[in-house]
Amino acid sequence: MFPLCFDVDGQTVEVQVTTLLNAGYAGRSQEDVAAHVAELAELGVPAPTRTPCLYPVAPYLAMQADVVPVQHGRTSGEAEWALVITDRDVLLTAACDHTDRELEVHGVAWSKQAGPDVLAREAWRLSEVEDRLDELTLTAWAGGQKIQDGTLADLLTPRYWLDELRARGLDEPGTILISGTIPMLPDVDQFAGTWRVDLTDPRTRRTITCSYEVNQMPDPVS
């Protein structure tokens, strides 16, 4: 496994990823989550037994990549934030959970293993923005089309997940948690050749960007 490196206020912070977790169905309003679960069920995606969910993912799937190879045309990302626990701090950054939508109908946990969690190369200390987390915005573009636009108030808080990690003995350096995503805008096409997620602090007008291209691999020879 290769370490991830983050620019934190001009200093490089290196993290060896030991645990990678993807939150799911993690909206602040669990009534809205229940409605979303019902919508997905109509598309054939199995409903979870409880919400929110927490999916362990292979640590090597956490990466800072410019290109994501995929096996077919029905994969897509999701606008998310990520918590990164280091030796000294808890960091907050932008992330994109690239998911195989064909595989998702057979099992959400399986689909999480079929694509990477792409993280930005810049991060903020959580302590420096925690007083205004609900003001931070998350925005995603697929192929230049805006497909998601919301705030961190739409999602369960980093503190909620830190408490969960502590209860499970996972609040250790090297743990990364991906937040779960915000709703898609209506009538958008999520299947595209490029992805970009912006995490923006309106007070300081600073933005952390996570972006990459999607490269469809050749058909297998079999």
| CATH-derived topology | Fumarylacetoacetate hydrolase, domain 2
Tell me the helix content.
Answer: 10-25%
Report the CATH architecture.
Answer: Alpha-Beta Complex
> How would you name the oligomeric state of the polypeptide chains in this document?
single chain
N-to-C span: 29 Å
For the sheet with most strands, the description reads: 8 strands, mixed
Total helices: the number is: 5
Shape: globular
Total E-strand runs: 17
Number of domains: 1
Average pLDDT confidence is 91
CATH top level is Alpha Beta
Uncertain stretches:
none
Strand content: 35-45%
Pfam family, one: DUF2848
Protein name: DUF2848 domain-containing protein
InterPro entries: DUF2848 (IPR021269), Fumarylacetoacetase_C_sf (IPR036663)
GO molecular function, one term: catalytic activity
Features:
five-stranded mixed beta sheet; DUF2848; Fumarylacetoacetase_C_sf; 17% helix; DUF2848 domain-containing protein; 17 strands; 222 residues; alpha+beta; catalytic activity; eight-stranded mixed beta sheet; Fumarylacetoacetate hydrolase, domain 2; single chain
